[in-house]
Amino acid sequence: MSTRGVSTHADAPADEPVDRRRTRHFDAASGEPLHPAAREVLLSAHDDGWADPARLYGSARRARMLLDNAREIVAAVLGCRPDEVSFTAGGTHAVHSAVLGAFAARERARSEIVVSAVEHSSVLHSAAALGPQGAVTRQVGVDGLGSVDADEFARAIHPASVLACLQTANHEVGTVQPVDEVAEHCERHGVALLTDAAQAVGRTELPTRWSLLTASAHKWGGPPGVGVLAVRRGARWRSPWPEDERENGRVPGVQNVPGVLAAAAALRARAEEAAELATRHAELTERIRARVPGLLSDVDVVGHPRHRLPHLVTFSCLYLDGEALVTELDRAGYAVSSGSSCTSSTLQPSHVLEAMGALTHGNVRVSLGPDVTIDEVDEFLAVVTDVVGRLRQEAAAP
Amino acid sequence: MSEQTASLTLDCRGMRCPLPVIELARRLSDVAVGDVVEVAADDPAAATDVPAWCRMRGHEYVGALPAADGMPAYRVRRLS
Fold it and tell me: Which residue range or ranges hold the Aminotransferase class V domain (chain A) (predicted)?
């Protein structure tokens, strides 16, 4: 039986190229490496927080105390009460729980789920999964910058709506959405408002008037496998899962206490550095936004130029296949992602870029982590210029 | 104006993105300014990428018409 990947470092394969270690991780929006503040906590939590927090003996009480502490930290950052915060197996699981639970708690006459056209696929897919139970999804479009118009979104909400889903900020292009602006309308009609804050927590100001909020720890430097579902007191929501007492009855199964503790430690550290990071990141992404059109011909910088996440910038290059770009940039030492799917099995382009009317091929999303420097960004710009030129030549692009 | 007969039809069926757009960019200069080129493509990305190409390159996206076999044909008017 091979233990590759689960064996210790000494047994690890040595076939990775040396310069791999120098790869710049420019894909923080997919997931960040563990925050240094979380590393120690994660290790010690396996000693201190391994027990089942629902039990009554000492080690279990200790795990429960640590878990409660983590919950307080997360609640403080989200701007809610600790008992409104539940931990899930990840961001997607949190979104599924939020959407399915809002529908499970609906009044009989309500059946519509209002979503922006640029929500994360986990939102769109969970709304679609409720179709057989009578849910109807109503999509609200965006403009060319990826912004939802608050009035248009509010007009889509009416007494037959169950739930409105509006992301805090878009995961592919970074555009920040007017969540608080639509909240009043939701409240007036008794409609729950879910904001998927996965890209915003620890990065930027959060909206305050949501009834449900979801997030994902590995996007703020916590470990993968920890998500957050916050349910405001009084929100119309009940667990869509088989009955279980864990997490206030909201999320079944024993909690990943070590992961949650590390996630909270990372978030506390991130919250302290967030303002400084946001300023620095916004300057660097602005530098990319400003320089790319001069360095590359036929390029579309997408997303809102001002109402946007500080750390994320996206552009699309005419005549190129996004996957080829990602592969070549990886070879050159930069990890980025792409919303293009020219070679994927479905061939369906990014629903976000499509909804914006943006070029869907040749797409590159750059999202910065805490350690990035201006020199690295300038090196990246030089490399991307070279790679795009080379790939266009190979494609015999016009 | 979408009734204007296309001066050139590009058969891009079976091509994956970005090939239909590359083909369009290569061949647009084969028609006179003001004429229409039709791109028949089954790649779902073409529905977004042909209009986006027109916006970026300063040509007019006229709209999509179903071709004889039901496949969409995207129509572009050369403006310069």
Answer: 60-380
Residues A86 and A50 in one domain: yes
Q: Is A317 a catalytic residue?
A: no
Q: Which domain holds residue B30?
A: 8-77
Per the structure, the complete domain to which residue A302 belongs is given by 24-34+274-394
Q: What's the Rg (C-alpha) of chain B?
A: 11
Which ipTM score applies to this complex?
Answer: 0.93
Question: What are the helix (H) ranges across A29-130?
Answer: 36-48, 58-78, 91-104, 121-129
Asked if residue A398 has pLDDT above 70, the reply is yes
**Which residue is catalytic, options B17, B19, B31, B65?**
B17
* pTM recorded for the entire structure: 0.94
How far away is chain B from the Cα of A120, in angstroms, using its nearest Cα? 19
* Statement to judge: residues A262 and A288 lie in one domain: no
Could you tell me if residue A5 is inside a domain?
Answer: no
Are residue A264 and residue A299 in the same domain, yes or no?
Answer: no
Residue A356 in tokens? 């914006």
Residue A175, SS3 per DSSP? strand
Is B1 inside a domain boundary?
no
* Residues A105, A244 within the same domain: yes
Cβ within 8 Å of residue A237, ≥6 positions away: A98, A101, A102, A104, A105, A192, A211, A212, A231
Of A319, A353, A359, the CB nearest to B22: A319
In-domain check, residue B53 = yes
pLDDT in tens, B22-69: 999 999 999 999 999 999 999 999 999 999 999 999 999 999 988 667
Mapped onto helix, strand or coil, the DSSP state of residue A303 is: coil
Give me the numbers of helices (H) and strands (E) for chain B, helices first please: 2, 4
A171: tokens are: 């995961």
